[in-house]
Give the backbone structure.
Amino acid sequence: MSKNHENPSPRHAKGEDTRKKLVEAALGSFQAQGYRGTGLSQLLNESGFPRGSLYFHFPDGKEQLGVAAMQLARGEIGAGIDTAFEVAKNPTEALRLIADGFAAELETSGFARGCPVTTVALEAGDDTPGLRDACAQTYDDWIERLTAHLKAAGMGAARAGRLATFALSAIEGALILARSRRSTAPLYEAVDELSLLLK
Amino acid sequence: MSKNHENPSPRHAKGEDTRKKLVEAALGSFQAQGYRGTGLSQLLNESGFPRGSLYFHFPDGKEQLGVAAMQLARGEIGAGIDTAFEVAKNPTEALRLIADGFAAELETSGFARGCPVTTVALEAGDDTPGLRDACAQTYDDWIERLTAHLKAAGMGAARAGRLATFALSAIEGALILARSRRSTAPLYEAVDELSLLLK
């Protein structure tokens, strides 16, 4: 729901709601079976919206929908990072809460749903520059948030930036192994190793 | 080239050569644009082989070709891991040599070619169980090799196993960030952080 409209007309609100549901459905599908493995027809069938609603909200096509999905993931996981650091006693506990979020998603989906951005990032190439940029900006955003939280916990700026990048690398990689091995163990082991560097 | 045949007929040798080239072409394409993003027609056009050669060597279709590509990657990168630990003075230097290999591949391909297994692993789902298993076995093989090398360098078995898994997580994740940011920095930063844990 757009915050730019304080009194949206019912019609506008309904359109925003349709757009949001389309983006959520797309993100879920990209997460489980990839960007290229997701057909727009299948997406419309599953979400129950008419083809016209897709063309109306995403006139530039699938890549535009992909960019919107990455922006949704960026905001959702970014908010998850912020919340974890707000409620946790220390950075290690915060990373464990972040791992809990990913572990729950993996387990409830039968290990189908890992990081919603990574699959798309690996598929995005020269033929989808907008999508590639949206993925890169998402990782940058998460690293900036992690850096800010590590600095707030007392770490020097340079060390915080390096550890934030490394923590994201380690967690993204662990998510791949966790999905592949159908076990959340690699995720929690990654947090345990990171905790040794956070001391 | 099969080692089971000491005196292959020229015809057999030619068939094995065709199979090998098809698998290499498939692996390169999966690495750059994903399993689902790779069309068999495009692959045949680029490799110059007739469609019949694909059906002959991979009668079960694309997934069978995918499994063979993952087995090729498993052997190639596995051998790279072994060589790195054989020539390096210590585990940190070995990880740096492994990073060098991935960095060269990223740079010569304009950051298109990251880990050849990860993209496929993330795309593989319930509809391609053979491919999913081949990816999981590949990661397991690499972790076993890393574990053996860390043990040979004097590390206890349990710690070696955990660090091997974590090192693979960190390097795989760093490869994703490196590809996305078009910079090899995350890869070498990951090795620097891992070196702190290897001490």
